[in-house]
Amino acid sequence: MTRPPYKAGRGQETVWKALHQISHSPFSKEIERAHLPGKFSSPNYVMYDGRADPIGHISHYRQSMAFHLGTVWKVLHQISHSPFSKEIERAHLPGKFSSPNYVMYDGRADPIRHISHYRQSMALHLGNDALMCRVFLSSLGPMSFRWFNRLQHSSIHSWDELVEAFVSRFITNCRKPKEFDSLLLMRMKDSESLKSYCSRYWEVYNEVDGCTEEIAIKTFKLGLDPKSEPRHNLSRRPAKSMRDLMSQIEQFVRVEDDRTRTTALSTQGQPLKKPASME
């Protein structure tokens, strides 16, 4: 008599699937059978496509899983020889800390500006050196992360030391502030709109260090067309502050925009709307 094929019940199917997974998995039985945290939520991380730097990928993954490092990862970490000191690596991080959103550093941007943005995003944790250091790695792109991995073992003992090393390496990318002469050379071009001149002027002004309001007002006026109405108005009623200057200029910009719209309508042959006559 032929024995019918074995059919597992519902509960047994789960057992067999688990045994099958363990028997074929590259992981050990201890890893496969380990209980994962009940409230664990998978972090956001970059998928490995098989072509990127594997060491950089592992480093980024470790950072995203910083609060869940197990025994295996601790062993791998000891082998990797972290540039951080033992005190930073062994420090207990806040249990409810959630990583903020920040811009990734690509190795070409201004390092001082990147540090400034990072400090703003971590404003509530500026006093925690270990946290500032370890989370900072998550803001590094592949190029800058390779730089970090090449640092001497246990050479970083504080957040200030990390900032100094980072800025020193990428200092050639720093944007140099423009000289005061840049404002003196500003001139309104022929047929240039007042709005366009304002945009160019304030862009240069924001890149000049130590420029007072008095100097800004004078250089802005000097750059205007000597025959223009805004220049004459500023001569008759000099601006007392930057706010006063902007208020005066905005009035002329509105008039200029209105003239531009009127000219455009007349060029297109569209009659201007007149108010309805009262009967």
From TrEMBL:
PANTHER family: AMINOTRANSFERASE-LIKE PLANT MOBILE DOMAIN-CONTAINING PROTEIN, CCHC-TYPE DOMAIN-CONTAINING PROTEIN. Residues 258-279 are annotated as: Disordered. Residues 145-225 form the Retrotransposon gag domain. This is Retrotransposon gag domain-containing protein.
